[in-house]
Amino acid sequence: MNYKEVYQSWLDNLSDKDPLRVELLEIKDDDHEIQERFYQDLSFGTAGLRGKVGAGTNRMNFFTVGKATQGIANFIKKHGQQAMDRGVVIAHDPRHFSKEFSELAAGIFAANGIKAYVYPDLRPTPQLAWSVTRLKTIAGINITASHNPKEYNGYKAYWEDGCQVSSSIADGMTDEINKVDIFKDIQRYDFNKAVEEGKVMVLTPEFDREYLDLVESCAIHSGDELDLNIPLVFTPLNGAASIPFRQMLKDRGFTNWVIVPEQENPDPDFKSVGYPNPEDPKAFKLSEELGKKFGAELLMACDPDGDRFAIELKDDEGNYIPLNGNQTGYILVNYILEGHKDAGTLPEKGAMVKSIVTSTMSSEMAQAYGVKMFETLTGFKNICGKIPYLHENGYTYLFGYEESVGYAACEQVRDKDGISAGMLVAEAAAYYRKQGKTLWQVLQELYEKYGHYNEDEPNVVLDGIAGAERIKRMMAHLRGNLPTEVAGSKVIKVIDYLNGYEDIPASNVLRFYLDNDSWFAVRPSGTEPKIKFYFYTKQSSQKEAKEVNTKIKEEVFSLVNSIE
pLDDT (tens digit, 9 = 90+) per residue, 445-496? Predict the structure, then answer.
């Protein structure tokens, strides 16, 4: 069926009073909007589902969430009764319909004879990831759109290893999802009745305490080694990290911190921040205002589902400077390696993991401590998915991260975790303060030691059908016309990951190396309507590094912007 026929089928199948039908009737004369909502099914992949909330096959709603859940239920049933009895654990963030979608999913699993565990209220994504292995479930679901704008919601799927589903598992789930008739095949069961009958188990606070105990066990230093009176500001950006992050700070003994009051409690409209992405310095506006009044040395933020974490540091002039994910990664990599070395606990075969689009400065840092830095594709299903390989080959996992403000400090949490990352950054700040240094000064020392790296990770947002097609044309043009020189420097190596490269699986990524200690990469996002760029260079000073990176970026953007 074409998009108009699918639109009509929804009108025919929805009851007159269904809000989704009312919504669809409001756009009956808007062909463009109908096409945007129905030209495709919301795609399910290794990142699950993500899209705007609303009526349509290309939107998040009770039918698309129901279809995905029924397909996953069918996939689990193919694995036998034992898998069904192990069940699925479900969590959600504060977004519109997140709780309702999570209860719908639990009811569908119950209707299919699959045990379901649910958290009674919002919980951060890393806690959900940990819960999968803690409860030994076959799968996990988190209803969240992470850091996307308020119009979005999403559906993250995890498998029994506690990682987001791999390509092979996602493909199997997708095959089953595609077989589901959205109006006929979804088996439903009343959520409250399922709880009463024991088909759905509501998890108790002991799991919250156990998760925090695990996070806090990842500490490097404690007690008298730290200045716990360091002034700190934290914001959860109206999301799920609020309670666990605050409890972690209390547990660790920090005595001089405040939370941004306008962003302390859940708000699905994110009225105080707009775009709730801690990667964007604009998300720190209220934190900066509070930090200046409070005299905070460090500002910290998590995104609404608590898996991403970003910071701003006070520089030597007293200004708050936003750090990108690479720079925060430098601080954490150094703090962990230095701490283990000083304590005599650095393993003989230590390992860290980063994505292929993350700065290579941390690889040099790891090498200086005799630790091997492994590379994977982006996403923590890949970064944490490397842990079994490390175990099999005698390595000890120390840390994993990627440039998009994601960090995995606890091996048992197989996803990025803003709570543990925040604990280690606050701890590092308190540790160095005890020594008379700020984190800003530590970062400058790292540049002096390892070289003056500069990094920039811009992206271009291209919405809708036209945007998706333009992104395809950009990648095709770059592949068909590989540049031999950029900003006066020769391209000495190109890696195209489209068919895989060495031990890294296939992915739509291009990586270019220049003869002036610079490299850049390009890839379409797997979860958002954007194409991402990554620019890195190492020069003799920060000023020179920034100038070189800017020239490379300007020339690359001039090229891609000319592709219509």
Answer: 999 999 999 999 998 888 888 898 999 999 999 999 999 999 999 999 999 9
Is there a contact between 448 and 361 (Cβ–Cβ < 8 Å)? no
Same fold, 40-203 and 453-561: no
Helix, strand or coil for residue 298? strand
- Nearest in space to 89 (alpha carbons), one of 144, 127, 43: 127
Q: How far apart are CA 301 and CA 242, in angstroms?
A: 10
Architecture of domain 229-450: 3-Layer(aba) Sandwich (3.40)
Residue 306 DSSP label: S
Q: Could you list the active site residues?
A: 146
Pairing of strands 232-235, 200-202: unpaired
Rounded Cα distance, 235 and 241, in Å: 9
Element (DSSP H or E) covering residue 387: helix 387-392
Q: Where are the domains of the chain?
A: 40-203, 229-450, 453-561
Q: Which of 307, 291, 556 is nearest to 299 (CA)?
A: 291
CATH class for domain 453-561?
alpha beta
Type of residue at 402: E
The CATH code of domain 40-203 reads 3.40.120.10
Q: Sign of dihedral through CA atoms 474, 477, 478, 483?
A: negative
Contact 242, 249 (CB under 8 A): no
Q: Does the model's pTM come out above 0.85?
A: yes
Closest C-alpha to 70, from 104, 27, 39: 104
Please give the sequence-ordered ranges of beta strands (E in DSSP) within 261-414, or none if there are none.
Answer: 298-302, 309-314, 320-322, 350-355, 372-376, 396-402, 406-408
Question: What are the tokens at 478?
Answer: 């770059």
